[in-house]
Amino acid sequence: MHNGTGQLLDQPSRLAELDSLGILEKKSDETYNRYTRLLAAHLETDVSLVSIVSPKRQSFLGACGLPEDLKKEGETPIEYSFCRHVVEQGKPFVVNNAEEDPIASKIPRIKAAPVMAYLGVPIHSPQGNILGSFCAIQGSVRNWTDAELAFAQDLVKSLEAELKSIEGISGNLQIISENNKLCFTTFAKYLLYLNEIS
């Protein structure tokens, strides 16, 4: 269970897990693109993102509906991020009209992909950190419904399961690496022993 507590963008535990998962530098992945297509189709939105948030930028692990140049770039500076507020608040961030919202109205707009309505839910890591936001974006005013929010919250649970499988692979690789080091050290000691008794 997640308690809805937000996190600082530079909180050491979340930064460490972002690093261990290796997803911050990873560009758009078809696995996560499928989730964004599902969300965009069900909610009939212009854009959907799997946005991973770091202190200086947000990276798009999955994307649907972005302009080609922004999709190729794969990230935006943190100053343009709606998704950071999902991390910092630790709960869904729902904006019906960005011009009237006290938080969203202060966020600069990207001309290539203007955000007028936003619905984002937290993406939790296997360790409980908030890595970013699974979101839907509309270029016009929109009143999101409770059912639409519930769908996003249900779908993000499957997305989080994908991240858990990544951590499992990373953990297994680390164990293999440590075992290899142990075997090498043991073998080196054995060679030294043979050298001493010969």
Write the layout of secondary structure elements.
Blueprint: H1 12-21, H2 30-43, E1 47-53, E2 57-64, H3 68-73, E3 75-77, H4 83-89, E4 93-95, E5 117-124, E6 130-138, H5 146-197
Antiparallel strand pairs: 1-2, 1-6, 2-3, 4-5, 5-6
Helix pairs in contact: 2-5
Kindly list the characteristics that best describe this protein.
alpha+beta; Beta-Lactamase; six-stranded antiparallel sheet; globular
Give a description of the structure.
This protein has 198 residues and is of the alpha+beta class. The protein has a single domain, classed as GAF domain (Beta-Lactamase, 2-Layer Sandwich), CATH 3.30.450. It has helices spanning 12-21, 30-43, 68-73, 83-89, 146-197; strands spanning 47-53, 57-64, 75-77, 93-95, 117-124, 130-138. A six-stranded antiparallel beta sheet has the order 3-2-1-6-5-4, with helices on both faces. Strand 1 and strand 2 form a beta hairpin. Helix 2 (30-43) runs antiparallel to helix 5. It is globular.
Mean pLDDT rating: 85
Strand order, largest beta sheet: 3-2-1-6-5-4
Order of helices and strands: HHEEHEHEEEH
Name given to the CATH homologous superfamily: GAF domain
The Cα radius of gyration reads: 21 Å
Compact description:
With 198 residues, the protein is of the alpha+beta class. The chain has helices at residues 12-21, 30-43, 68-73, 83-89, 146-197; strands spanning 47-53, 57-64, 75-77, 93-95, 117-124, 130-138.
